[in-house]
Amino acid sequence: MSKRRPRKLNYQAIVEIIKKDLVWPELGDSPEAIHYYHLTDSLGRKWQTIGCHVTDAIKVFRMGDYRPWTYILESAPYAPNLTFQKLVQMLHIRFKDGDLKNDMQIILNSPARCNQFVDKIVNVNHFSVFKLLYELKNEYLLHEPIPQSSFESMYSANPIEALSHFYLENVDTLDYWEWKHAGGTAELAIYYRKTNPDLSLIEAIEKAERSRAKQ
User: How far apart are CA 165 and CA 144, in angstroms?
Assistant: First the structure.
C-alpha cells in the first residue's frame, strides 16, 4: 500500500509570497537551490514553506502542513467584524454540497465563532472544513448552548429558527412539523438536552415518538 501523501491538501488562496534564506546554505546558491518562502494566505495567516522557486514553493504549500518544512508561523489576527459570509469568501473553496454551507452559517453564528474556526483550521479543504465544523458544533452544544430563556422566547415567536439555534442544525418546515407531530415542545427539547446535550433534532423526534407510542 502506497504511503505517498496526497498531492493537494491545502486549497487556501495565497495573497503574498516572499523568498527567504537558503535551506542549506552550506551547499551554496544555485538555480536549483532550495529556499525558505514565507506566504500569507487569504485568512491572514503567515506560513513557511520551501521550494526552488515561487511556483515550486506554492506546490509544496498545496501539499499541506508538513513540519519542519511547511507550517503556520503566525495565526491570523482577530477580526471583530468577521461574518460567515466574509469567512466563506476568505476560504476560497468550492462547497460540494449546500448542507455544509448552511450548517456553517448556523454553527458559526457570531464573530467569535468565526474567528475560532479560523484559529483552529490548518489545511483548507472540504474534508478539514467538514471535520472541524462538526467538532466545534459538539463543543458549542456542550459548553455554549443557547440560554434556556432565549430559546423559549424565540420558540414562541419562530419555532423553526429556535430549533435551528438550539440544535445548531438547518431546520426546515418539514422537520418542525415532524417534531410537533411527535409531541415536541420547547419544554421537551430542554428536557432532552439535560440528559443528552449533543442530541440531534432527528434523534429527539425519534425519542419523542417512542415516548408517545408507550402512552
Answer: 11
Residue for cell digits 458549542?
Answer: 140
Kindly report, residue by residue over 128-170, the tens digit of the pLDDT. Answer: 999 999 999 999 999 999 999 999 999 999 999 999 999 999 9
The beta-carbon contacts of 43-47 under 8 Å, at least 24 apart in sequence, are 43/12, 43/76, 43/90, 43/91, 43/118, 43/121, 43/124, 44/76, 44/77, 44/79, 44/118, 45/72, 45/74, 45/75, 45/76, 45/118, 46/72, 46/73, 46/74, 47/71, 47/72, 47/73
- 22 forms bridges with which residues in the sheet? 35
Element (H, E) at 144: none
Degrees, nearest 5: CA angle 130-169-153: 145
CB 118 within 8 A of CB 82: yes
This prediction's pTM: 0.89
Q: Is 170 left (phi over 0), alpha (psi -120 to 50) or beta?
A: beta
Cβ atoms of 76 and 12 within 8 Å: the answer is no
Residue reference for cell 479560523: 118
Residue type, 57: A
Who's near 37: CB < 8 A, 6+ residues apart?
A: 17, 18, 19, 20, 48, 49, 50, 51, 54, 57, 61
Q: Could you tell me which residues are beta bridge partners of residue 175?
A: none
Give the whole-angstrom CA distance, residue 62 versus residue 51: 12
